[in-house]
Amino acid sequence: HNTTQRSTHKDNNMLRTRNYWTAPFLWSTLCLFWGVKAIQLTTTAPSKLTGVDLHDFLSRPANWPTIVASSNRVESDGDETTRPMKKGSQVKEYFGANLLSVEWICQETKDGELLVVTSSEGLPGIADQCAMKFAIQDNQVDLVMEYNPLSPVAFLATPILVVDNWMALNLLLPAAVDPSPLDSFRKLMGSLYGVAGVAHLLDLILGESSLFKAAGLPNFQELPVGAQAYALLWCASGPLSFWATRQETPKFLADASLIFYGMIEV
């Protein structure tokens, strides 16, 4: 009988402990959910396009999937997706492996300045009163995204949307409108090789040859003269690649410097 009482008492304590942690969490979640009327996310990014060109790109819904990682495709009854949206234009955008969709209506558009699209229905059961407002300037774009949460899913998705929006404007948009992506790639690799070359040099001269140690090689000071010269050439090829990829012409010089660095490293 005493054993049964102790067991029951222990179970009650465990239940109270679980309730102690669970109840406040559920209560705070419900309070948060019912207390928030709308969520607003703001993203700002620089732009190399003129305001007119940037507006022209963003106002064509067919371009949205190229800059929004979560967007799969955009459809319309006519050719609304390929033309700049006008007030009243309506398109349907699909997300999440085409399992979710939102119907957007253009509420306002000004060439080179503004684009506003809304969806009163949004995602049924998840969020409604959705809106995207693009404020466009010659060197900057500001996106304000708003939605009214109808489900905890809408709250859980907020961090994902923040990252998605930042990637769209800061990474994918510049790549999508880049007139010379190959040249941009050259400069990117030149920058990486340049930093790597300087870092290797500092490690060899001032550090402990960490990279050599990781590969099972002696310290730089213990290497033969020929090997030391080769290591220094490797370090120098990084800044050389950086310089060559910044030259307007000839382009083969940039390509040769990148190949040269790779050959030395191998």
Give the number of DSSP strands. 7
Major sheet description:
7 strands, antiparallel
Total count of helical runs of at least 4 residues: 9
Tell me the series of helices and strands, N- to C-terminal.
HEHHEEEEEEHHHHHH
Radius of gyration: 28 Å
Shape, per Cα inertia axes:
elongated
Helix proportion of residues, in percent?
A: 40-55%
Unreliable spans: 2-11, 13-28
Strand order of the largest sheet: 1-7-6-5-4-3-2
Mean pLDDT: 85
What does this molecule look like?
The structure is a single chain. This protein is α+β, with helices and mostly antiparallel strands. It is 51% helix and 21% strand. It is built from 9 helices and 7 strands; from the N terminus they run H-E-H-H-E-E-E-E-E-E-H-H-H-H-H-H. It has helices spanning 2-35, 51-58, 64-67, 152-156, 158-177, 181-205, 210-214, 225-244, 251-265, and strands at 39-46, 71-75, 90-95, 100-110, 114-119, 127-136, 140-149. Helix 6 runs antiparallel to helix 8, helix 6 packs across helix 9 and helix 8 (225-244) runs antiparallel to helix 9 (251-265). The radius of gyration is 28 Å and the shape is elongated. Mean pLDDT is 85; it is low at 2-11 and 13-28.
Describe the secondary-structure layout.
Elements (H helix, E strand, L loop, with lengths): L1 H34 L3 E8 L4 H8 L5 H4 L3 E5 L14 E6 L4 E11 L3 E6 L7 E10 L3 E10 L2 H5 L1 H20 L3 H25 L4 H5 L10 H20 L6 H15 L1
